[in-house]
Amino acid sequence: MRINGTRYIGLVLFPLFFMVHGARAQYIEVRADFDTNQIRIGEPLHLDIQVHQPADIRVDFPVIEDTLVDKVEVLRTWPADTALTNGDLEIHKRYQLTSFDSGLYVVPPLKFRFSSSIWTDSIESNPLYLLVHTVPVDSTIYDVKTPINLPLSFIEVFPFVLGGIIVLVAAGFLVWYLRRRKKNKPLFRAPKPEEPAHIIAFRELRQLKDEKLWQRNEFKAYYTRLTEIIRRYMERRYGIPAMEMTSDEILDAWNRSGEDRENLAGKLNMLLNLADLVKFAKQKPVASDNEENMERAFDFVDRTKYVKPEEPADRSDALVGKPESGTDDFEDQTKSAEG
């Protein structure tokens, strides 16, 4: 569509004739045009400028930068394209334009200056017209559509099922781990069978004897270690919390346990009382007392050790040939018990 029905907007076939040195006429033609003169807001259009001129004439184009006129913006500019035809120059230059405001815009004539070696002049194109339409708005009001119910697919449900399985497995593992940890059991291997309480006590008593602490006058260390071995043995063997009790509390708990079938309370009393005197009263016992208390410790463990019902122990055989003044033969018997 063209405004006013014109085919070209601009100066079409505007001839100028000049006589240069009285011999030759000069012909210049300037033409400016839109490829369309009606657009909607934001749509692009093109401005094409064509100049026909003699090769010896210089023509200066108008300067068009960011805007052609107010609210008509320049989006892009192409370099001028020049061609030589029959000794004359054909120059073509293109601009891409748009507008974001509706209305009728009038582009005033574009002014071109030309000159030769002896004269200068100018020429203008016709004004251009551009009509910018607004975007039509559909004012029809529609009801809000209800959601479409679609059946759940396996792909949609699978992540939730997988997440639930992972949570259940993690919770089960946590409960299992806490139970194993509470019972001091290893996590991923069979627990090592715990040694019988008397085997541990016999080994610790022999280690203490080999260290010869009382022979170096380390009486406090000797009796501290000796009573700790007996206390730990009573905890493992009978469940009596002896490590947290005083000597009197240990003797009272032993008498109330009903386990004193060998009348060992007296020997246990002498061992614990002498140990208290050494640790708290700094008493220095003689060598015979130290050896007798070691023997009492061995004897207490041996007479109270656990024996399986299918293997009844002959207590009389356990002490046959035991010397009164030492524990060497007695230790050989405890070693065989460990085996």
- Give a count of the beta strands, DSSP E runs of length 2 or more: 14
Taking the sheet with the most strands, its summary is: 6 strands, antiparallel
Arithmetic mean pLDDT: 80
Shape: rod-shaped
Distance between the termini: 116 Å
Instruction: State the order of secondary-structure elements, H for helix, E for strand.
Output: EEEEEEEEEEEEEEHHHHHHHH
Radius of gyration from the CA trace? 58 Å
Low-confidence stretches: 1-25, 315-326, 333-339
Q: Helices and strands: which structural class?
A: alpha+beta
Helical percentage = 25-40%
State the helix count: 8
How much of the polypeptide forms β-strand, as a percent range?
15-25%
List the domain count as a whole number: 2
Structural commentary:
By secondary structure, this protein is an alpha+beta fold. It folds into two domains: 131 residues, Immunoglobulin-like, CATH 2.60.40; 142 residues, no CATH class. It has eight helices and 14 strands. Strands 3, 5, 7, 8, 9 and 10 form a six-stranded antiparallel beta sheet that branches. The protein has a three-stranded mixed beta sheet with strand order 4-14-11, with no helix packed on it. The protein has a three-stranded antiparallel beta sheet with strand order 6-12-13, with no helix packed on it. α2 packs antiparallel against α6, α3 packs antiparallel against α5 and α4 packs antiparallel against α5. The longest helix has 29 residues. The radius of gyration is 58 Å and the shape is rod-shaped.
